[in-house]
Design goal:
This is EF-Tu/IF-2/RF-3 family GTPase. By secondary structure, the protein is an all-beta fold. The protein folds into 2 domains: about 5-90, Translation factors (Elongation Factor Tu (Ef-tu), domain 3, Beta Barrel), CATH 2.40.30.10; about 95-185, Translation factors (Elongation Factor Tu (Ef-tu), domain 3), CATH 2.40.30.10. It has strands at about 5-10, 10-15, 20-30, 30-35, 35-40, 50-55, 60, 65, 70-75, 85-90, 95-105, 115, 120-125, 130-135, 145, 150-160, 165-170, 175-185. The strands form 4 sheets. Strands 1-3-9-6-5-10 form a 6-stranded antiparallel beta barrel. Strands 11-16-14-13-17-18 form a 6-stranded antiparallel β-barrel. A hairpin with a 6-residue loop joins strand 5 (about 35-40) and strand 6. The protein is elongated, with a radius of gyration of 18 Å. The model has no long low-confidence stretch (mean pLDDT about 90).
């Protein structure tokens, strides 16, 4: 996929008494090279780190591109400052948000969906992040029933890396409930990253 580098962090490992932090994941788009600077985005991180080594299929390589599962060794960040669900990206290419508008679709009742009302607390699955948040239905809608669609506003407890048109899933009362598509234009919910 074309575009600036982006990889969701799936796991974090420390070596050499925490001096080397290795971040694993699948590259969604773009490419990264040894020596590149990348930004950690999400959960208020906002740190820029250097890629010191790249490993794929247990081999050290100089460059990795979209679709590859890699381990990226970094310098300039403490292990506790990085966690699953954040993303590595080309600096300035993606921002984190605490809220967004979305078009959501509920599953059937048999598949786990139930009625959803304004103020409901849900678990949102956005890339590798799982974040709690509150849902607000549009003013024209009092309740959203299984198998229905609706426009909503979502306010998250923690900021995550988001892009317009990005897909996400959500759980309600511990069960899979539906999915949606992010709309960022005009939401005014960007967090400082």
């Amino acid at each position: 996929m074309d575009g600036p580098f982006l990889m969701c962090i799936e796991d974090v490992f420390c070596r050499n008494q925490g001096r080397v932090v290795t971040l694993t994941g699948r590259i969604e788009r773009g490419r990264v090279r040894k020596g590149d600077e990348v930004e950690i985005v999400g959960f208020g991180a906002g740190a820029v780190v250097s890629v010191t080594d790249i490993e794929a299929c247990r081999r050290c390589i100089d460059e990795a591109s979209a679709g590859m599962n890699v381990d990226l060794s970094t310098s300039g960040v403490a292990a506790g400052a990085v966690e699953r669900g954040q993303v590595l990206a080309a600096p300035g290419s993606i921002s984190e948000h605490t809220g967004f508008a979305a078009d959501i679709a509920l599953l059937s009742e048999e598949d786990g969906a139930a009625e959803i009302r304004t103020g409901e607390r849900l678990h949102f699955h956005i890339r590798g992040a799982v974040v709690e948040g509150r849902l607000t239905l549009s003013q024209e809608t009092d309740v959203l029933h299984p198998l229905h669609r609706g426009d909503v506003t979502i306010t998250l407890d923690r900021s995550v890396a988001l892009e317009d048109g990005q897909f996400f899933a959500f759980r309600h009362r511990g069960r899979a409930a539906g999915s949606g598509v992010v709309t960022l234009r005009g939401t005014g919910t960007r967090s400082a990253g």
